[in-house]
Amino acid sequence: MSPSDDTAQGPQKKYTAPALEKGLDILELLSTEAVGLSQTEIARRLGRSVSEIFRMLVVLQERNYVTLDASTDRYALTTRLFEVAHRTPPIRRLTTLAGPVMQRLAHEVNQSAHLAILSDDGVLVVGQVDSPGNNIMSVRLGAKIELWRASSGRVILAWQPGEVLEDYMARVPLPPEMTAAGLCADLAAIRETGHEVRDSFVARGIVNISAPVFEHSGRTVAALTVPHLERFGDPVSFDACRAAVVAAADAMSRSLGGGAAHAQS
After folding, report:
1. Model pTM?
2. 153 and 23 within one domain
3. Could you tell me if 190 and 155 are in contact, meaning their C-beta atoms sit under 8 angstroms apart?
4. In terms of C-beta density within 10 A (0-12 exposed, 13-18 middle, 19 or more buried), how is residue 22 classed?
5. pLDDT above 80: residue 23
């Protein structure tokens, strides 16, 4: 084969590890399936034979990355990947510092709270605490949320350098109802206010209160969000809840060597 033939077929991989690639393909596929898939379905989706993926599934099951439901013969992801991801030093440090602060906040304002970071082209919830009350509005730990429809994502990006924001806007399509100009105006308003208060993107009657968490470099590394649920006779006012969320995020920032939001704008 001539050099021109190689060029015509596109760039070639420098190294290949077929078995590893098959295992990763299985993990990535199962991450999109809430109820899991059978061995036959996995093979069909990946364009491979059942015999090709059989050993991969056995090893992944032995290593506790996937589990097999004997009643349905479906494979699904365990929480193993999530646990491994949380061993990453920056995330582990962030969640370790944030945990006690979020617990105090939830009890102070009688609301659930979650902590999120940017992950690939979305927002990943890495910390979550439920309200101590009977009525709960919460976001699942480990949930992956659409970037532009998450107050957490908007708050984190509001303090990122311009080139970072431009890169996300180029890679992640905006929802039909959003415009680039409108989004930039929203992010500017978030910077000016120091946090975001807006109606939830997914649930009517819920108001998001989201505040940034800064590291020592001055960049946002996370956002602390309370999806505020208004209850009859709630002794904690909305304004008091908002102030508590901002104070909790500022406390996390100080623990990480960063400053408060109002000092960053």
Report:
1. 0.69
2. no
3. yes
4. middle
5. yes
Mean predicted confidence (pLDDT) in 235-263: 89
Residue holding tokens 């365990």?
78
- 129 and 259 inside one domain: yes
Q: Is the dihedral of CA 149, 133, 130, 100 positive or negative?
A: positive
d(CA 161, CA 199): 26
Number of separate helices (H) and strands (E) present in the chain: 10, 9
The CATH number covering residue 60 comes to 1.10.10.10
Q: Which pair of structure tokens corresponds to residue 210?
A: 């989201």
Q: Is the pLDDT of residue 56 over 50?
A: yes
Q: Six-digit token pair at 90?
A: 């920056």
Say which amino acid occupies 195: H
- Domain span at residue 98 reads 86-263
Q: Helix H segments across the chain?
A: 3-8, 18-30, 39-46, 50-62, 80-85, 89-109, 151-158, 162-171, 180-193, 238-255
Task: Give which of 98, 96, 91, 92 is closest to 249, Cα–Cα.
Answer: 98
Distance (Å) of CA 86 to CA 92, 94, 209, 223, 236: 5, 10, 25, 17, 33
Share of the chain above pLDDT 70, in %: 90
Q: Which residue has the tokens 């929203």?
A: 186
- Please say which residue of 82, 102, 136 terminates a domain: 82
